[in-house]
Design brief:
single chain, Beta Polymerase, domain 2, globular, 5 domains, 5-stranded mixed sheet, HD_domain, RelA/SpoT_AH_RIS, alpha+beta, about 45% helix, about 700 residues, hydrolase, Hypothetical protein af1432, 27 helices, TGS
């Protein structure tokens, strides 16, 4: 553990103007406040904040950050308060300490809810000052270094899993690769102990059997570059054990099949030297096609810049080589922390960096704990691709991203209005995965809105959160619309006319926020008709005890203008279409399910509220289902689909359910306008020589 004078000397070594008295006061304060508290290792608790402060000095961070590191646990774990910290150390330190302080554990919350709530507060604090993140990452790194002292295996695995899923990716996103690699290694040891032991053992074997091979290769690289006139530093190492394991899992290969276990780093004086050195290496050794990446011309979103290539050395040995300048190396290893150095003269990087703005937007859009964790993990996904707008603006996205992800990355409004896309000038489906260097043009319409089906292929947290928020808003709007129609029908059964005043009082009696909440509650059957009538006209329902005397629905509820899947759901068992006589089943929290009147499944709805429904005038559009038995000879399937095309009915699904020597049976889902349209199609099928029988399902 760092002693008091050692910590102060470290800070003064890079920042002579630091307030020595304030640093001493912070050190003494944390020792006094934590007192006799012990860590799981048996060490005094104050050794933890002191070591975290030591990590901050290695990054040469400013005085306020060092003091924050010393005090970051005092408010949570001792009797200290934020107000006391502000009085002793100033408002900036108090704000940072408050941002880093973990939430008190709420036992009523599930593990995911606690993690999500901690993450939510953390991200919001981080958006105001990124030093909160830097201290938190150092705090987590030191906790991971001492994780093995915790006796409970379940707790160790929980902390390791959270580190792997949240903190290591966050360290990567701000460019702190040293922190990321160590966190991953320590978490990997806890989560996959057998794999960890196997891979580290194999690396040790390679190291002992091959002796100084890494050093010999590094020397060969340095000599080749020196002969070409370049002054360089070359270092080599085996690849990170977690990186090797991840590659083995992704490629489904064994350790022996991983051919580029060795990695080398070349440090040069300037950017032109980076490209010059690359040319020398490619001329000296054969490069491996498809493995070259230029992060100098197109840096990663966290500011990472370097040239990456892979070469075949002697004896067919593959190796990875990274080429960068010294400034790039400093930024690459410590990312945003390098910009917070005291040398910056008070100039601080903007905390509202692009990816962080996306995370804050996700916090606002996420509906619950599970969604927040899912969206955040997607947003800090590591493997990236680069795509361009038609005007040349560069956007970085996860691998597998689609035009919808790209549209939301450009702007949330663009994503919401997307109706089509062009990739490199060609029209493509919206679910098409993007490739590196693609130029993406989004076709938009002001009348468009996000589709629920997009959730099946988008991969970014920002897109998924925005789509879910828009779909939920649309769903609530339509449920409220059907609830309003039900309300009007319920109010019509009362003995007196109901006005705005009575409605407002009914909302208060039912303990709801506003009129919209009442309509949603009616639409989702959270409030029954009797309760609504009693709230509108107290006493109107209380006297009726016999269910047979209860006022029945007098007129059908129109579902015209509502969207299937939002305000109501069309039952898949009978596939009703406009023109069918329909009824609705309403169950609490599930909305209205629409069935054809002759559907056999209606017998299962005895526990639901039955509603008399109508399609309303000019309602069009639904999916009908047809079963066709075709003669088993060439061309019959083409003739059947030709009938659908002639009738302008789009095929949604076509499935062969059985086939023998004479016949093939097909089930087909087709988009039709109404019952008459479907009836004409069935009649045309029956008249065809290719069709044995055709029936609506």
């Amino acid at each position: 553990m760092l002693r008091q004078y050692e910590l102060v000397e470290r800070v003064k070594a890079y920042d002579p103007d630091a307030d020595e008295a304030l640093l001493n006061r912070a050190y003494v304060y944390t020792v006094q406040k934590h007192g006799t508290q012990k860590r799981a290792s048996g060490d005094p608790y104050f050794s933890h904040p002191v070591e975290v402060a030591g990590l901050m000095t290695e990054l040469q961070l400013d005085q306020d950050t060092i003091i924050t590191a010393l005090l970051h646990d005092t408010v949570e774990d001792t009797l200290a308060t934020v107000a006391e910290v502000e009085k002793l150390f100033g408002p900036d330190v108090a704000r940072l300490v408050d941002g880093v302080t973990k939430l008190s554990k709420i036992e009523a919350m599930t593990e995911s809810e606690r993690a999500a709530e901690n993450l939510r507060k953390f991200l919001l604090a981080m958006s105001e000052d990124l030093r909160v993140l830097l201290v938190k990452l150092a705090d987590r790194l030191h906790n991971m270094r001492t994780l093995h002292f915790i006796k409970s295996e379940e707790k160790r695995r929980r902390i390791a899993r959270e580190t792997m899923e949240i903190y290591a990716p966050l360290a990567e996103r701000v460019g702190m690769y040293e922190y990321m690699r160590e966190m991953q290694l320590l978490a990997f040891e806890q989560l996959e102990p057998e794999a960890y032991a196997t891979i580290t053992g194999r690396l040790a074997q390679i190291r002992s059997s091959e002796g100084g091979q890494v050093g010999a290769i590094a020397l060969s690289i340095k000599q080749a570059l020196a002969e070409a006139g370049f002054k360089v530093e070359v270092s080599g190492r085996e690849k990170h054990p977690y990186s090797i394991w991840k590659k083995m899992a992704e490629r489904h290969v064994s350790f022996e099949q991983i051919t580029d276990i060795m990695a080398f780093r070349v440090i040069v004086d300037s950017v032109p030297d980076c490209y010059g050195a690359l040319g020398v290496l490619h001329q000296t050794w054969q490069m491996i096609p498809g493995r070259f990446k230029d992060y100098i011309s197109t840096p990663k979103s966290n500011g990472y810049r370097s040239l990456h290539t892979a070469l075949i050395f002697e004896n067919s040995m593959r190796m990875e080589v990274q080429i960068r300048t010294r400034d790039m190396h400093q930024t690459n290893e410590y990312g945003l922390a390098a910009h917070w150095s005291y040398k910056q003269g008070g100039v601080r990087p903007d905390g509202e960096v692009g990816w962080l703005r996306d995370l804050i937007e996700i916090v606002d859009a996420s509906h619950d704990a599970e969604e927040l964790l899912e969206h955040t993990r997607l947003a800090i996904y590591q493997d990236r691709i680069f795509a361009f707008t038609p005007k040349g603006a560069l956007h970085q996205l996860p691998k597998g991203a689609t035009p919808i992800d790209f549209a939301y990355a450009v702007h949330t409004d663009l994503g919401s209005m997307a109706v089509g896309a062009k990739i490199n000038g060609r029209h493509v489906p919206l679910r098409t995965p993007l490739g590196n260097g693609d130029v993406v043009e989004i076709i938009k319409s002001k009348n468009s809105s996000p589709q629920l089906s997009w959730l099946s292929f988008v991969v970014t947290g920002k897109a998924r959160a925005a789509i879910r928020r828009a779909v939920r808003a649309k769903e609530r709007e339509e449920i409220a619309a059907i609830g309003r129609k039900l309300y009007e029908e319920i109010a019509g059964r009362l003995p007196t006319k109901v006005g705005k005043k009575a409605l407002k009082e009914a909302v208060q009696r039912l303990g709801l926020e506003d009129e919209d909440d009442l309509m949603v509650a009616i639409g989702t059957a959270k409030i029954d008709d009797r309760s609504v009538m009693e709230a509108l006209v107290p006493g109107s329902a209380r006297s009726i005890t016999d269910p047979e005397d209860w006022p029945k629905q007098e007129r059908a509820i129109s579902i015209r203008g509502l969207t299937p899947g939002m305000g109501f759901h069309l039952a898949e068992c009978c596939h009703p279409v406009p023109g069918d006589r329909i009824v609705g089943l309403r169950r609490p929290g599930e909305g209205v399910e629409v069935h054809a009147i002759d559907c056999l499944k209606l017998a299962d709805g005895i526990d639901a509220d039955w509603l008399d429904l109508s399609w309303g005038e000019r309602s069009t559009g639904a999916v009908g289902q047809v079963r066709c038995v075709l003669y088993n000879r060439p061309g019959t399937l083409a003739e059947m689909t030709g009938i659908f095309a002639h009738a302008r009915a789009n095929i949604v699904r076509l499935q062969m359910t059985s086939r023998d020597n004479l016949f093939g049976t097909y089930e087909v889902d087709i988009e039709v306008t109404d019952l008459a349209h479907l009836t004409r199609i069935v009649s045309a099928l029956r008249a065809s020589e290719a069709v044995s029988t055709a029936d609506r399902l």
